[in-house]
């Protein structure tokens, strides 16, 4: 099957397979969201069905929950799990300190809660996600629908004082309607081009009324598994 994949899918696939090898019998595992995490869930499903691997999975979105169930993985809630041994998830960008931008799939809120409640977070990514400085990928910020335009104005005002190159903020759409997250919120995408101080920006964003969470994952990721289009994998 791998020979039929495009280079980018092969890169995601090999990173996901390497991460799946880290999962051991009896583990409670956070299951990320997105196309790379979907490969992970499929690979874990193969191990559950083929090797009798016994795990409990805590999905980070309804999409991942559905896929995990289809793959035969036992799905439990975070509250049932209490704490997780390992979370494996994709990312939109990662830098040399393993700080991340996440939320391209609009699941950043559950993803951050689940990753933070884990002994270890491992990111799986194709090599194109690696950056020197975060910010080329628009930073997703989850906001409650009530007064979202006021929240956007407050975000724009805050960005004027931050070390970023761009300040435009757009509402993520799903066709003609605003995108609605699994938690019933909207996503604002911040087109910043370059984030000079990601830690400070993450703190400032979360102080704005109406902001639920931002897609900067600072000091949360422990390891990155990078996949390449030729099938190579690097564990960082
Ligand atoms: C979803 C995410 C994803 O992990 C991120 O968007 C990467 O997705 P993909 O693996 O499809 O490139 O943060 O909210």
UniProtKB/TrEMBL annotation:
Substrate binds at residues 33-36, 89-92, 102-105, 129. GO terms for cellular component: cytosol. This is Ribose-5-phosphate isomerase A. Catalyzes the reversible conversion of ribose-5-phosphate to ribulose 5-phosphate. Pathway: Carbohydrate degradation; pentose phosphate pathway; D-ribose 5-phosphate from D-ribulose 5-phosphate (non-oxidative stage): step 1/1. The active site is at 111 (proton acceptor). Keywords: Isomerase. Coiled coil: none annotated. The keyword Chaperone does not apply. It catalyses: aldehydo-D-ribose 5-phosphate = D-ribulose 5-phosphate. The keyword Isomerase applies. NCBIfam families: PRK00702.1, rpiA. Belongs to the ribose 5-phosphate isomerase family. One of its GO terms (molecular function) is ribose-5-phosphate isomerase activity. GO terms for biological process: D-ribose metabolic process; pentose-phosphate shunt, non-oxidative branch. Homodimer. It comes from the Bacteria.
